[in-house]
TrEMBL record:
One of its GO terms (cellular component) is cytosol. Mg(2+) binds at D222, D246, D250. Binds 1 Mg(2+) or Mn(2+) ion per subunit. NAD(+) binds at G280, S281, A282, P283, D284, I285, A286, G287, K288, G289, V290, A291, N292. Catalyzes the oxidation of 3-carboxy-2-hydroxy-4-methylpentanoate (3-isopropylmalate) to 3-carboxy-4-methyl-2-oxopentanoate. The product decarboxylates to 4-methyl-2 oxopentanoate. Residues 2-351 form the Isopropylmalate dehydrogenase-like domain. It comes from the Bacteria. This is 3-isopropylmalate dehydrogenase. Its main location: cytoplasm.
Length: 355
């Protein structure tokens, strides 16, 4: 089991060290190799995603990624910015399926901005298509308008597009994930206005014929945004396109309290995956030893489950995290009166001890 470890910038190095500690104590045979990525790679090699890092990632069964970015790189040309590293990895490895579970741990119910009864026991999975949609569709650009409301004016345009195979493969991923859960998929679209998403709805409906045991619901994205805060527990698996998924998954993340708790997985058709916390490099707290490492540790659990076929070990990590929370240990982002404030390394050590 080859793991490429790419800590990156800011808190990336601090939180990835804790996840590596946790993996090492599992007594499984991993081959872990680290490489620089993002700003750290730019400093050393002049590029955020050096060929050697990309090669290591391609040869690995799974990638454990921290975070990239820092305000000090804002003035660099776009291709040299740290964030290009994560976009490059997604593109080169064909990572089209982004899994973002939003789980509200019993011990953290009070940390959410929603009423406890709405989110207690919450366990939903947002699956976002990651390589298509308006984010990548061509043509795009700026030009002088020849028609529309203001002919002759400067205008910008992007193209929303999805092909049948792109929708089919993400729909299969969603139905298969639902089979292992509560057998319900909500496909989110805007079919009432957009042809791309009428097509999305039609293709998801076609794929559903192969999964008669799974319930399929279609929902417009505006309603989905509302339902997520009104009755989030009514969802099980949510599948949607790149842009709607970007927005809805951030919304869902806040249901659970802190972004420091949220893992993610991005998978390709070979089962290879990149696993990273949902948050960024948090330059405001980097180097202080206070970042919450649990999102990264839970991402390592997802890695064991999805790419390394180690379900039992994944569950062991998840149980250990709950145990540590039950002991009352909290990094500052999830701390509340009556619990014990700990730093990044102490939290990692506690998970290791619980294991
Ligand atoms: P961020 O997620 O890094 O931070 C947002 C807020 O959440 C900050 O106040 C931060 O301190 C806090 N936070 C984040 N992770 C935390 C953790 N584990 N424990 C405790 N608190 C935590 O987002 P922001 O500030 O918008 O971006 C900072 C940099 O990260 C930027 O350069 C951005 O481009 C990059 N970024 C990178 C991502 C990636 O590597 N996949 C994803 C998102 C942002
Ligand atoms: Mg986002």
């Amino acid at each position: 089991m080859k793991i490429a470890v790419l800590p990156g910038d800011g808190i990336g190095t601090e939180i990835v060290s804790e996840a590596v500690k946790v993996l090492e104590v599992l007594d499984l045979k991993f081959e872990m190799k680290s490489a620089l990525v993002g700003g750290a790679a730019y400093e050393a090699h002049g590029h955020p995603l050096p060929e050697s890092t990309l090669q290591l990632a391609k040869e690995a069964d799974a990638i454990l990624f921290g975070a990239v970015g820092d305000w000090k790189y804002d003035k660099l040309d776009r291709p040299l910015r740290p964030e290009q590293a994560i976009l490059g990895l997604r593109k080169h490895l064909g990572l089209f399926a982004n899994f973002r579970p939003a789980i509200c741990y019993e011990q953290l119910v009070g940390a959410s901005s929603l009423k406890p009864e709405l989110i207690a026991g919450l366990d939903i999975l947002i699956i976002r298509e990651l390589t298509g949609d308006i984010y990548f569709g061509q043509p795009r650009g700026r030009r002088t308008a020849v028609d529309g409301h203001f002919p002759g004016a400067e205008e910008a345009f992007d193209t929303m597009r999805y092909s049948r195979p792109e929708i089919e493969r993400i729909a299969h991923v969603a139905f298969q994930a639902a089979r292992k859960r509560n057998k319900k998929v909500t496909s989110v679209d805007k079919a009432n206005v957009l042809e791309t998403f009428q097509f999305w709805k039609d293709v998801v409906t076609d794929v559903h014929k192969e999964y008669p045991d799974v319930e399929l619901q279609h929902m417009y994205v505006d309603n989905a945004a509302m339902q997520l805060v009104k009755a989030p527990k009514a969802f099980d698996v949510v599948v949607t396109g790149n842009m709607f998924g970007d927005i809805l998954s951030d919304e869902a993340s806040m249901l659970t309290g802190s972004i420091g708790m949220l893992p993610s997985a991005s998978l390709n058709s070979k089962g290879q995956g990149l696993y990273e916390p949902s948050h960024g490099s948090a330059p405001d707290i980097a180097g202080k030893g206070v970042a919450n490492p649990l999102a990264t540790i839970l991402s390592a659990a997802m890695m064991l489950r999805f790419s390394l076929n180690q379900e039992a070990a994944a569950q062991r990590i998840e149980t250990a995290v709950q145990k540590v929370l039950a002991q009352g240990l909290r990094t500052p982002d999830i701390w509340s009166e009556g619990t014990t404030k700990v730093g990044t390394a102490q939290m990692g050590d506690a998970v290791v001890k619980a294991l």
